[in-house]
Amino acid sequence: MRVRTFLIALGLSLVGGLGGLLLASGVLLVKDSTRARLVPWLVSYAVGALLGVSMLRLLPTSLEALAPQFGGDASSRVFAVLLLGILLFFVLEKLVLWRHCHTHDCEVHEGTVFPIVIGDAFHNFVDGAVIAAAVITSVPLGVTTAVAVAAHEIPQEVGDFAILLHHGYSRSRALLLNVLSATASALGAVAAFVAFDIVPRTLPYFLALAAASFLYVAMADLIPGLHRGRTDAGSMRQILLIAAGVATMLVI
Fold it and tell me: Domain boundaries in the chain?
């Protein structure tokens, strides 16, 4: 049973990391004008998926796990971790280890591609750990989390490809670098599985931290980009796609 859970966690971590990358590779094959319209749609769906899985799945699961032990105090513990997590990811983004950039002109990365590869690998490592933690809690939660991770990796990988190509990398080399960084999700899953086997009581707190990471990415990195430009029919499309992302997390 333990081996089966580990294999599921490992497989879903690769789905989250490589799945988004493969879909992003398909997006890059379309014309620039089509891609410019498609990426905001993908971002909108990713926002809904991240908000849905964090608020409707991860946080309730964390509260449910801690309630028998701490009773009414469980909510204060969970939301304290949530707050600390959001502050932590703000600091990590300042260090260029945690960011989302969906265009080739992201000013943080104009000097070198090194922060892109390292930052993306770190991000994928954390995503893999989050997926593994969710699988350990329950396989359905792991599936939901992997889908949310894959959804937000698509526009992220499109942005990474654009930056690498902008710096003169060939498509094959850019793909190779992104594949290597994506495999860090498997390492994250292995690390999480070992860690929670040693200290299982920390799992509910990690789920709250995972919710913080998803909320931060959605609200600090993705949503501001959707507010650029004028309000038109595209705004309604964004709202509908966000709702679709939330609905997906409810259905799975």
Answer: 2-251
Given a cut of 80, whether residue 229 has pLDDT beyond it is no
Q: Give the span between the Cα atoms of 117 and 135, in whole angstroms.
A: 27
CB 100 within 8 A of CB 124: no
Q: For residue 149, which of 52, 6, 31 has the smallest C-alpha distance?
A: 52
Instruction: Give CA separation, 161 vs 57, 112, 222, in Å.
Output: 31, 14, 17
Q: How confident is residue 231, by pLDDT bands cut at 50, 70 and 90?
A: low
* Three-state secondary structure call for residue 97: coil
Count of residues in the chain: 252
Give the helix/strand (H/E) hosting 26. helix 20-27
Q: How many whole angstroms separate alpha carbon 46 and alpha carbon 34? A: 18
47 Cα distance to chain centroid: 10
pLDDT value, residue 80 = 97
Q: DSSP 3-state assignment of 112?
A: coil
